[in-house]
Design a protein that fits this description.
This protein is an alpha/beta fold. Helices cover 30% and strands 28% of the residues.
């Protein structure tokens, strides 16, 4: 577990000299400056609260022994939240600038059991990382050109539970359509909408073509990949507007049904 926050004013000064995507509390009590509007920052707190509430039974059952992987870890905020409950955390992020920021913050907060790695989960080879008990994937699925391939990587890295938070299409389409010829049909289990990506955005996609999942399409795909218990989580009171209205969803996918007794 963590060795505790570093009382290093030079580290804090480096952190406070730049703007951040997340509201971090530093050991001195000072807080990071944001480059996003405060009203948007509320999404991070809603995600964190939903994550912790869903994982609380696992934290209670396996105190201080769980491992975690944070896919698209960005500046490390959710990795460091998981680090409060897990023995080890690995954050995987494709943008070097975000990896550097996350490592700086982890050093400042004394989270020496958290490691940040620069890699692209969409293109990396199968089997590159050891599986972890908990895998989270927040704000990524709607920034991908190959979302099914990423879900396969998520599946192979997950021992117990995968949490996905994503923008979604809201609308769901399903039903039988012709397949091959007019005498045969196949069943559509939701869908993935095609959108333009924005590689020029430092917090956006790596591709100029991306796919947004429909809720049913994402849940069915996770079930198809072998997850046994797949649920869309209910946002808490006061949740960020997009999560409260279903424009974004958080899905929990377990490899085995969790005993919550």
């Amino acid at each position: 577990m963590s060795s505790g926050p570093m009382q290093d004013s030079s580290l804090e000064e480096r952190i406070l000299s730049q703007e951040w995507f997340y509201d971090f509390a530093l050991p001195s009590g000072r807080r990071t400056k944001l480059y996003i509007p405060e009203v948007v920052e509320h999404i991070h707190r809603t995600r964190r609260d939903m994550m912790i509430a869903e994982l609380e039974p696992l934290f209670a059952k396996y105190p201080d022994s769980l491992s975690a992987i944070d896919i698209a870890s960005h500046q490390g905020w959710f990795s460091l939240e998981l680090a409060k409950h897990c023995k080890s955390v690995v954050g995987i992020e494709y943008q070097a600038r975000h990896v550097e920021s996350a490592r700086l913050m982890a050093e400042c907060l004394g989270a020496d059991h958290v490691k940040f790695v620069q890699d692209n989960v969409e293109t990396m080879a199968s089997g590159k990382f050891e599986p972890a008990d908990i895998v989270i994937n927040f704000g990524l699925m709607y920034n991908l050109e190959n979302p099914i391939g990423v879900l396969r990587r998520c599946r192979e890295m997950t021992r117990k539970v995968l949490l996905i938070e994503t923008q979604c299409t809201i609308l769901d389409l399903e039903g039988r359509i012709d397949s091959g010829d007019w005498t045969a049909t196949n069943y559509m289990h939701g869908y993935w909408g095609v959108f333009a990506g924005n590689p020029d955005n430092i917090d956006g996609s790596a591709s100029d073509i991306v796919f947004y999942p429909s809720p049913k399409g994402l849940c069915w795909t996770l079930s198809r990949l072998g997850f046994q218990d797949v649920r869309i989580l209910v946002p808490p009171p006061g949740a960020y507007q997009q999560l409260a209205t279903g424009k974004r969803i958080m899905v929990a996918a377990y490899l085995e049904t969790l005993d919550r007794g």
